[in-house]
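Question (not urgent): is this output format expected?
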Amino acid sequence: MDQKDVVFIGGGPAGYVGAIRAARLGAKVALIEADTLGGTCLNRGCIPTRALWRGVEFIDLVRKAKEYGVNYGAAEVDFAKMMARKEMVVKTTVGGVQLLMEANGIEVLKGKGTILSSAEVEAVLDGGSSRRLKAGKIIITTGCRYDVPAVPGAEAIITTDHALSLKEVPKSLIILGGGEVALAFATIFCKLGAAVTILEASDRILSEVDGEIVSMLEKELKKEKIRIQTGARIQAVRPGAANEKEVVFDVKGEEMSLTAQTVLLTDGRRANVEGIGLEKAGVRLEGGYIAVNGRMETSAPGIFAAGDVVGMPHLAHVAFTEGMTAVENALGGNAEMDYTVVPRCVNTYPEVASLGLTEARAKDEGYDLQIGRFSFGASGMATILGERVGVIKVITDKKYGQILGVHIIGPRASNLIPEAALAMKLDATPVEIASTIHPHPTLSEAMMEAALDVNGDTIHSISANKK
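Got this back:
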């Protein structure tokens, strides 16, 4: 029987990153993956979605080019080619992970992993044979999958897995859910010409994002003719005319319906916990997910878990960190997960990025707030780019100057939020951000100006906090 220091079950972001970290710490590592390395993120999530988002970005760039004196003519979309390039991006990224596995001496077993005990795992390989591995530590990183609502006609609903394999752009699309994934797909297919409607069960989209930012985004989405219906609870999906689907939903007790060619589910996921031996090993579940502490330890000694299988937030960058935290502790370290600084990014036009407390949440928690804002309309680089819509909002505690949250809507928001994340991680204040020299002309200057505005010192705009 093979002896390994660490055995991973699942090769998604938590699994493959954790495996690389373990190998670089000197451990003998095996990783069991039933599907394809990279998990949902690389194969059916972040990477292919962002690749399509980049594709549709050129539609607007061609139109904007005329403002710069460059005429390309009308943009023509070759959807098949766009999807083919998306597949190339996925294969390149997954191939890179495979090379990293080999370079770090990690044994990858293609098959289904099952825990036999706290020190033994069986891998049933694709060819039908099996391998038993003795494991010093076991780390479960099996991820999660869509949980299609149990309503009449649910078989007509597709998930984003299917949407990323469509052969043609649907003429009309109803998206179930109002989170980051829903908004990304709404943006992509709207730009490609589909009539898009978002149905969100709660009273607002993007519940983790500051309300002021969401309001600005909704105005931009409406300009693109994306319809948003909140408070909509799906009741059924029925056949409609001309091969369309009729979605029946309830809004405050009133039954309503809409029809579309395609119905896409973007919210509602469940952990992949079945058939991997959790009950026999004594691994406790909580709300359908594997229960872990801050060290990513499960209820079973010697068994850890990380990634989507342990619950929200379902974000690849969180899974990366959870996987490495689990490894550090599995190999005798003392690492603790910190979820207070978790950036969330939304692939819309304009982009949205969010971090920490919203203004409403900070008030609910009793903070006396001091807020800085800077509009991209006053940014030289945003003006150069022709993307002046948006704002950076810095929320601070007035008493101590602590940054509680940063929320952005505007160009390249996802590339700007890491500065705020680092500042919050290091307990930096707006004064320290503002006193750091930022290159000019860049979008990053907007972060500096928003930090300056907390104390009414912004330079390139009139501050509401003016002293």
